Structure formats: C-alpha cells, structure tokens
Amino acid sequence: MPAEVYALVDVDSMYASVERVFRPDLRSVPVVVLSNNDGCAVARSREAKALGVAMGQPWFQLKNNPRYRSVVALSSNFALYGDFSARMLAVTERHTPFIHPYSIDEQFLRLPADRAGAIAWRLREQIGQWLGLPVSIGIASTKTLAKVATKIAKDRREGVHDLTAASPKSVWQVLDELPVGEVWGIGSRLTARLAGHEVTSAGQLARLDPGWVRRAFTVVVERTVRELAGTPCLPVEQEPSPRRQLMHCRMLGRPVARQDEVADVACAFAQRVAARLRRYGRATNTVCVWLSTGGGFYAGPALSVQATQTLLAPTNAVVPLARAAARLARALWRPGHTFRRVGVMALDLVAEPGQQALWASPAADDAVAAAVDAITARFGRDAIGVGRAGFRQRPVWAMRQERLSPAYTTRWDQLPVVR
Ligand SMILES: [Mg+2]
C-alpha cells in the first residue's frame, strides 16, 4: 500500500444542509434551493431528489404541481454557503496541510495511509458537531477512485468508505457495477463514444490499454483509465468543466502578510478564474474570496475568513472580477496574520450572456477580456494581466517552481537547443 492516500470530503446536499443548520424544522422535509431570482432548482435535498425534482427544474413547474406540495423552496444564499465552505476548510486544516479545495463543498486531502480512516471519521464527527453539516468521505489510492469511494459512502449512507481497505476483487466488483458515465470527468459525450467501443462500466474503462485510450481519445481520458486502475496521475488543475461553481485556491509559495500583497494574490487568482469561465462559456453572478493562515500546522494565530460579493450582472470579464476579488481581499485582511492559502471562487454560474443581454457587461470590459485572452494564448499566462498579474517578474507569493522544467513543447522561447 502507498504511504499516502487521497480522501475526498464532500458535504451531502450542501446548500440544503446549510439551510437546515438554521432551520431544524426542515430536517426531513424535501428542500430545494433556487438559482438567482428564484428561477430554477440548483440544489436538492435527498428527500427532494427522491420525489423526482430534477436539477435545473424551473420553480414555476414545481410550485403548481400537487406532487411537490411538500417541497420547501429557498432562495440561494451564496454568502452563507461560502462562509460554511471556509469554516469547513478551517476544520480540515487541523488535520492536514495538504488540501485541495475542489468545489464549494468538496476538498481533496492527502493523508497518511495508516491513519486515513481514523482521521476521516474524526473529521466527519467534527464537521457534524461544529458546523452541523453531514459529510461523506471516500478514501482511495487516487483522486478518481476517491470520488468513487465517496459515492459509495453516500449511496450506502456509510459516512466513510475506504477503498484501500477493500480487497482488489471487491474494488473491481465496485467498478464493474458503476456506469461509466458516473466516473469523474466522463461526461455524456464521452459516455456515448465509449459505448461505441462497448465500454459501459467503470471496470471496463479501467481495463482498457492506456496507450490505446490516448490515441483513440485524449490524454485526459488516459489519465482517468490509469487512475481507475490505481495509479495517481491527475495534476492539481485537472478537472471536468464546471457547472455550478469554479474556484482557484492555492497554498502560496511564500506566505503574505501585507494588505496590498493579499489583494495582489486575489486579483491574480481572479484572472485565472475569469480565463477559465470564458473557456467554458460560463459567467458568474457572485465572487467569493477566502483567506486562511493555514491552520494548526503553522506558528501564529489561525484565521480562516471569507467574503462574498454579488455582482450587478453575470460576467466573465477580467476587469470587474479582478476588481471585486481585490476589494474583498483587502476588506478581509487582518494585521498580524500571515496568510498561506488564498481562494477565489466564482459561484452561481450561468451561461455566458449574449450580446443582447439586458445586463451584459459593458462592451469595454468584453474588449479587454478578449484582448487578454488573445495575448495570453500567444505569449503565455503571465504576459499580460491586471495588477500584479501583468508583471513579468514572479511575485514573491507565487508557487515555488524553481525546479520546473521548461515548457519544451509549448513555448518557442523554451525550445530545447541542439548544438
Ligand atoms: Mg456535495
């Protein structure tokens, strides 16, 4: 067994569960949370799912249907959900510094293999007791398998499911029973293509020859195949396209203490978020910034704070997002703390606004965003940006990459030279 394993901590029905913390009367009631302006269901409690409420179902359909009479609908409160997300991070930070927050309610942790199960149970108990949130935790040798383990923990209401404790035979049995479309990163289009090769279960996918998969599909699918078979190979940034939220959250290479530095980091991270939103054709209504001192593993006072800002109109333009993130970070900053982790999250995603949208971002913002995209596509991510992100010299807080090998194949200035 490897010395370290992955654990995925995932809140059960996050939005509905947060609402229930303050409304115990909603405990066993079907709850749905509605999108901005109460348009459609963006989150459903277990009971609401059992009633057949679909993700994205318009509220007017639910409201007038006697079948859903018992359903309680709430407007989304992203400031509240973001705050619980930051509090959850503060709890997990007591157990490990190796955390990759992946979405508002999911965090990947790296844990020592011999204690992972015990830590997971303790963590589940603490998040339940201190925050009032139910979580399911999956443990496995790779992130993709940890996703599978979490699904089992949820489906069987086990709380924690540890695939590293299972025999290889029973792991294969789990994979053989799992539809391929439920594997992390395998969307509906890939599911259809895989069905053409008679691959319908996760087990069949895991047994494919990785080399063939790379040629027939992509290197991303190849990684999924290897991960399912137990070899970790997902880089941190790898993720399926976002539907509900998108975040960029990192441990800094060097902690920052000054207010302007904290704002610089948030400003730079917001630009990463903006670029990815545009790549996926999404826009956000709400920006959330997290600051954390890194928890009990470091000297100095522990602090984990977040703030949320709702934007006037959904946008994916770089300037308004960077401005909002920097402003939030400046407001969150506290003297006497050194911050090690910063996160910028775009919540409440919608399809990119069209040209005629009533509240579309000002044309100037879009023009700037398009110019930034064009320049960074050609000259690299650090070629241009707002604030610190526009400087060529690496800021002090940037991830330590002194030992990074050159981009031999994607940057002209880093081509290997043959003499
Ligand atoms: Mg969840």
Secondary structure layout plus pairing:
Blueprint: E1 4-11, H1 14-22, E2 31-34, E3 41-44, H2 46-51, H3 59-63, E4 72-75, H4 78-92, E5 99-103, E6 106-112, H5 116-131, E7 135-140, H6 143-155, E8 160-162, H7 168-177, H8 188-196, H9 202-206, H10 210-216, H11 219-228, E9 246-256, H12 259-279, E10 282-292, E11 304-315, H13 318-332, E12 339-351, H14 363-379
Parallel strand pairs: 2-4, 7-8
Antiparallel strand pairs: 1-6, 1-7, 2-3, 5-6, 9-12, 10-11, 10-12
Helix pairs in contact: 4-5, 10-11, 12-13
The structure holds magnesium ion.
Keywords: DNA damage, DNA repair, SOS mutagenesis, SOS response
Family: Belongs to the DNA polymerase type-Y family.
GO cellular component, one term: cytosol
How would you explain this protein's 3D organization?
- The protein has three domains: 4-12 and 81-229, Reverse transcriptase/Diguanylate cyclase domain (Alpha-Beta Plaits); 16-77, 3-Layer(aba) Sandwich (MutS, DNA mismatch repair protein, domain I); 246-379, 2-Layer Sandwich (Dna Ligase, domain 1).
- The chain has 14 helices and twelve strands.
- It has helices at residues 14-22, 46-51, 59-63, 78-92, 116-131, 143-155, 168-177, 188-196, 202-206, 210-216, 219-228, 259-279, 318-332, 363-379, and strands spanning 4-11, 31-34, 41-44, 72-75, 99-103, 106-112, 135-140, 160-162, 246-256, 282-292, 304-315, 339-351.
- It has a five-stranded mixed sheet. The protein has a four-stranded antiparallel sheet with strand order 9-12-10-11, sandwiched between helices.
- Strand 5 (99-103) and strand 6 (106-112) form a beta hairpin.
- Keywords: DNA damage, DNA repair, SOS mutagenesis, SOS response.
